[in-house]
Amino acid sequence: MVQIILTDKDYNEGNLDYIRFTLSELLEQAECRTGIARAGGRSALSVECPAYYADIVKRELCDKAADVIAVNYKYDYFKRRIPTGGLGGIEKELLMTSLIAADLEEDKRYTYGRLKGFGDIAIDGIFHFRLRPLKAKWQGIVNCMPEYFRGSQLKDFITYLLEDKKRKVFVEDEKVYDAQYRRLTRGELMDKGMEEGRIVREVLLSGCGEVEVHSPLPATDEKYLKEYFGDKIILGRGYFS
């Protein structure tokens, strides 16, 4: 058996929960044993798997750890530094979400490249000591943000970021799925206490340009999905049932 360990600060244990949950099917198929433990202010996810599965399991763990940095760490970075004058609570979250989504895949690819090659992974250590160019890029975005948003500025800003997006996602029973109908849960890496607008935030994080809706939506999600995606929303038969 090969053991792989990922760690983070104990207050970020939710990041490790995300990794284990999103990979649960793979880890089960690869006959892995997993556990999360706390000690000395840190949380650790341990994964034990047969040696012949170790390479693929490690790649997938690195992929999800890259999600953690490209979403959770970026969210925390922006939330502490970007002024959001003129915006209400849900609008602030939508701004943060759209900024994360704008170049999420690029940030993730860069991060993934810095995660490979380690036996064990300290997510916060990688972020602080191997991703300084990424933090510098994020600071450049912070420096360009206005201190106050007026009227339709947020809508114009978000629709501009969505302009060239091509992917399609599906929304059904208040869950979001990609084109292969795999559940998307990156929103779990943001503020879990903000339930309002959860669906539209997940849709934004998907990097899609088209949304197919198969069931009725909460009022807030419907409002903002229509506002940002307009005629790129397809209403399935289940939406009207």
Overview of the molecule:
With 241 residues, the protein is of the alpha/beta class. 49% of the residues lie in helices and 18% in strands. It is built from 10 helices and 8 strands. The protein has a 4-stranded mixed beta sheet with strand order 2-3-1-4. Strands 6-5-7-8 form a 4-stranded mixed beta sheet, covered by helices on one side. Helix 1 (13-22) packs across helix 3 (54-81) and helix 3 packs across helix 4. The mean pLDDT is 93.
Mean pLDDT: 93
**What's the alpha carbon Rg, rounded to whole Å?**
19 Å
List segments where confidence is low: pLDDT < 50 over at least 5 consecutive residues.
none
Biggest sheet layout: 4 strands, mixed
Helical residue percent? Answer: 40-55%
Shape: globular
Described by its quaternary structure, the protein is single chain
Order of helices and strands: EHHEEHHHEHHHEEHEHE
Structural class: alpha/beta
Q: What share of the residues does DSSP label as strand, in percent?
A: 15-25%
SSE blueprint:
Layout lengths: L1 E8 L3 H10 L1 H6 L3 E7 L2 E8 L4 H28 L7 H14 L1 H12 L5 E2 H8 L1 H13 L8 H9 L5 E6 L2 E3 L20 H8 L2 E6 L5 H11 L3 E3 L6
Parallel strand pairs: 1-4, 5-7, 7-8
Antiparallel strand pairs: 1-3, 2-3, 5-6
Helix pairs in contact: 1-3, 3-4, 3-5, 4-9
Give a brief rundown of this model.
The chain has 241 residues and is an alpha/beta fold. The chain has helices at 13-22, 24-29, 54-81, 89-102, 104-115, 123-130, 132-144, 153-161, 198-205, 219-229, and strands at residues 2-9, 33-39, 42-49, 121-122, 167-172, 175-177, 208-213, 233-235.
